[in-house]
Amino acid sequence: MDASPPAEERAPRRGLVLVPTYNERDNLAAIVGAIHAAVPELDVLVIDDRSPDGTGELADALAAADPRVFVLHRPGKEGLGRAYVDGMRWGLRAGGGLPPPHHHGRRLLPRSGAARGAPRGL
């Protein structure tokens, strides 16, 4: 696994949203945009499993253009649960903390994501 850029250079300073991806090139920019439209101060960690459609490369471009976006490249498909574990570990190493057990991201992000052009699942 490698993170671009290294966590030491650009550690998240706000809340961190984990976005596991596999072949999400067509949706990724809209997802990241919807998160930032809803809560601009949040950082986003894209966790890509070596998507053959170029999702990882797009994530790198988004990270290069926006200091709130980070990328964790994994060597291959390792599963959704493992992506969240790896993302949490990345966040902890980068200086973040874990949310309390009662924390739920859906309560932080408004439900109007679809109105802002986000894919249905957001």
In short:
The protein is of the alpha/beta class and 122 residues long. It has helices spanning 25-38, 55-65, 80-93, 105-108; strands spanning 2-4, 16-21, 43-48, 69-73. The chain has four helices and four strands; from the N terminus they run ββαβαβαα.
Low-pLDDT regions: 4-8
- Share of helix, binned: 25-40%
Q: Identify the strand order in the major beta sheet.
A: 1-4-3-2
Shape: globular
Q: How many whole angstroms does the radius of gyration measure?
A: 13 Å
Q: Beta-sheet strand percentage? A: 15-25%
Order of helices and strands: EEHEHEHH
Terminal residue distance: 26 Å
Question: Describe the biggest sheet?
Answer: 4 strands, mixed
- Overall pLDDT confidence: 81
Instruction: Give the helix tally.
Output: 4
Class from secondary-structure proportions: alpha/beta
Number of strands: 4
What labels would you give this structure?
single chain, 16% strand, four-stranded mixed beta sheet, globular, alpha/beta, 35% helix, 4 helices, 122 residues
Can you describe this structure?
This protein is of the alpha/beta class and 122 residues long. The protein has four helices and four strands. A four-stranded mixed β-sheet has the order 1-4-3-2, sandwiched between helices. Strand 2, helix 1 and strand 3 form a beta-alpha-beta unit. Helix 1 packs parallel to helix 2. The two termini are 26 Å apart. About 4% of the residues have low confidence.
